[in-house]
Design brief:
The chain is mainly alpha-helical and 241 residues long. Helices cover 64% and strands 10% of the residues. Strands 1-2-3 form a 3-stranded antiparallel sheet. The chain is globular, with a radius of gyration of 19 Å.
Amino acid sequence: MILFPYKDDNQTQTFPWVNWFIIAINLWVFFFLQFPLNSDEKEIFFSSFGFIPSMFFGQLANLSVETIAWEWSTVFTSMFSHGSIFHLLGNLLFLYLYGDNVEEAMGKIWYFLFYLSCGLLAAFAQALTNPESTVPMVGASGAISGVIASYLLLYPRARIRFFYWFMILFGTIRIPAFLVLGWWLIQQILAFPESMKAASGVAVAAHLGGFIAGLFLTPLVKKKDIKLFQNRQTHRFARNR
């Protein structure tokens, strides 16, 4: 059976410029900077712009301005780099579905700062699970996990539309966000112990770190008139009266 989320029933009143800007940067980096590279060049790219825990913590032993600036910059460049096209498109699908509503709830500047902060804290969470790791970490999933947490706090009853295909049956169904995102969270929690035992290739600790960051930061940076755990449609109609 195929289940594919493609839209939510949670329309915004303003165009999500920042969310689309973030999506555009991710697409540009992958298709214009990464895609033309051969395998050796990709390895150099990830070593240069990916977040490497051992290198980041190694700056403590080398207090040069250049080293500190470069290692801190990789925390952010890693958020806009991806290991494969499936890695990229999977992340951007989640950002497309949930980021526009979170941006509207926070405002454009605060949303951008929120996104970067969740990515930063997600990288630290992953690094602390294995500070001696030499494997470059790339991907927007840590920051997007923060966006998922924010959406879950703000609009748990919003409906997510799924396309389904089971043998000869196909169509669309609508599932509440708290079930969709709650199941995603359960998957991350269940996968975490195994990810600690072996290098699975999936930064589960970053997902959980970004999610926890989103839970704590959302009440601090959302607009004052935006309530938590709201029904999006009810809020919109009330504001328009």
